[in-house]
Amino acid sequence: MRTLTLNELDSVSGGASGRDIAMAIGTLSGQFVAGGIGAAAGGVAGGAIYDYGGTAEFGKNRTLS
């Protein structure tokens, strides 16, 4: 299992509060939510991070290497 540091989370989320980050752990789906109060995580697929920020790139899939 890979653990993200706070700096990595900030980088993935773009440093913007209110951003929703969902992370799968290993082959099992779990979630980690970063963002402001009221943020809700979306679906998770193994090995992927989904960025649900309110931008034109809504739902863009970003993977960790």
TrEMBL record:
Any Pfam family from its record, for instance, is: MccV
Report the InterPro entries cross-referenced here: MccV
Lineage, top-rank taxon, reads: Bacteria
What is this protein's name?
Colicin-V
Organism classification: Bacteria, Pseudomonadati, Pseudomonadota, Gammaproteobacteria, Enterobacterales
